[in-house]
């Protein structure tokens, strides 16, 4: 478990000062642009209850709350190690403005049936689910850090488990958005089959001439509408490391990805 | 069957005069940019035997032969109506330069086992397969034209049939490229599973701000490498209907899609 020594964690500012995250410095998962892009998938005028599956320090959830002023949100996390940071994040004075709109659910997203409901994940409870599933294949990037492994490694069947729980805990016509690596596309689509339709894919390219590093998938529970590729998100210009204007606006909560 | 009245067919020039197609004017399938983009997937220095599955008038095959000077190619078509046009295309004086590098296989791509081999589609015979499968869902665009229906309507299981035949008739490590509508992505990926890897997807956008109208998928038989999203192909600029420079070069055989 984390000790409260200053060097064990960092306090990182997002959305130009609108919220901060308390994140483990040396192990576990640290959030960045992926979380900001995912949070940008929630419609700006969303006024229901959203969930951040695998919340970690709360990056996706707080970014969504900061941009969508009427949203309420449940941070869902199972790792006791990371829950310590989720709670520290919520305790930060800078984040006090979100207190009335956010709650924490300590639950294993892979649970089923009564065990899932008992853990706080009831059927039809959410209007939107956001998820950034662990995405490294164990074979291609072994990590000696157990907590990082828990956040990063895509174990067999995890996408199926997470998308099943998303489908059950969403109301009919509820929304889904996830961010994943291109190599997971086939498994993501297979797990959506029969559960989510009106799928919209946004490839995320580091630069115009490079292969995509991530894709966003948005969908609607129970829809039978056809899949679409939406305009790509390109992060950087040909030279320089700064973000292009749209990527910068998405990263700082000033623009939704589908607005 | 087509009669040889002038009004029954058109003679259309492609690649700025490098080849022409004899196409039915009033019914059946007429080729355009889709075929040119697909043909652009064959590597420029390709020197083996490629196949154009569902060749129609021969647009994909001739475009590939025009750009890849060392390629040999088999036009595979099953419709007697369209085979008439395939043959007319090959008989055109402008296309005489390709005569030594092209052959016609009249075969149903959905055949299996000995029947498939008897029809001329032998195991491991191709180095690359190009396909533009019929892609309209019968429900969303009914057509009263039987020949157009045959070319355009994606019957249940057709993608599975075509990709199975592609996998069997390709040599190990042979290449595949297809063009399809985004709504077919899930079925295409499902049919590739266990057969093709190193998948590369290129979304094709009409304009930067619009949803994609097609995607290209390229893959390698038997590969286990991860899927990638490659840089998108954008056809038109924000104003005007002309092609952007890269799309124009692809459409006219001056640039491969992956070069």
How would you describe this structure to a colleague?
In chain A, a hairpin with an 8-residue loop joins strand 8 and strand 9. About 2% of the residues of chain A have low confidence. The radius of gyration of chain A is 17 Å and the shape is globular. Helix content of chain A is 26%, strand content 26%. Chain A has one domain: Vaccinia Virus protein VP39 (Rossmann fold). In chain A, helix 6 runs parallel beside helix 7. In chain A, the strands form two sheets. In chain A, strands 3, 4, 5, 6, 7, 8, 9, 10 and 11 form a nine-stranded mixed sheet that branches. Chain A has a two-stranded antiparallel ribbon with strand order 1-2. Chain A contains eight helices and eleven strands.
Structure at a glance:
The structure is a homodimer of 259-residue chains. Chain A is built from eight helices and eleven strands.
Task: Name its key features.
homodimer, about 260 residues, alpha/beta, Rossmann fold, nine-stranded mixed β-sheet, two-stranded antiparallel ribbon, 8 helices
Question: What is the approximate shape of chain A?
Answer: globular
Number of distinct beta strands of chain A: 11
Percent of residues in β-strands of chain A: 25-35%
CATH architecture of chain A: 3-Layer(aba) Sandwich
* CATH-defined superfamily of chain A: Vaccinia Virus protein VP39
Termini separation of chain A comes to 41 Å
CATH fold call of chain A: Rossmann fold
Q: What string, H for helix and E for strand, traces the elements of chain A in order?
A: EEHEHEHEHEHHEHEEEEH
Tell me the greatest interface: A-B, 25 and 25 residues
What ranges of chain A have pLDDT less than 50 throughout 5 or more consecutive residues? 137-142
Number of domains of chain A: 1
Helix content of chain A: 25-40%
């Amino acid at each position: 478990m984390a000790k409260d020594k200053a060097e064990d964690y960092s306090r990182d500012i997002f959305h130009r000062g609108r919220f901060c995250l308390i994140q483990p410095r040396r192990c576990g998962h640290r959030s960045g642009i992926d979380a900001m892009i995912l949070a940008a998938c929630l419609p700006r005028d969303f006024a229901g209850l959203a969930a951040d599956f695998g919340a970690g320090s709360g990056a996706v959830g707080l970014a969504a709350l900061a941009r969508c002023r009427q949203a309420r949100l449940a941070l869902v996390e199972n790792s006791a190690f990371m829950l310590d940071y989720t709670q520290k994040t919520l305790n930060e004075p800078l984040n006090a403005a979100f207190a009335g709109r956010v709650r924490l659910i300590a639950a294993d997203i892979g649970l089923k049936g009564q065990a899932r409901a008992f853990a706080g994940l009831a059927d039809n409870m959410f209007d939107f689910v956001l998820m950034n599933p662990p995405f490294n294949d164990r074979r291609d990037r072994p990590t000696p850090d157990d907590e990082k492994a828990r956040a990063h490694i895509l174990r067999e069947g995890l996408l199926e488990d997470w998308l099943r729980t998303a489908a059950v805990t969403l109301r009919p016509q509820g929304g889904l958005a996830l961010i994943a690596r291109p190599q997971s596309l086939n498994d993501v689509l297979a797990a959506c089959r029969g559960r989510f339709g009106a799928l919209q894919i946004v490839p995320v390219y580091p630069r115009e001439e490079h292969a995509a590093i991530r894709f966003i998938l948005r969908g609607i529970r129970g829809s039978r509408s056809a899949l679409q590729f939406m305009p790509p998100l390109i992060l950087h210009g040909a030279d320089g490391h700064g973000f292009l204007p749209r990527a910068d606006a998405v990263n700082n909560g000033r623009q939704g990805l589908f607005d």
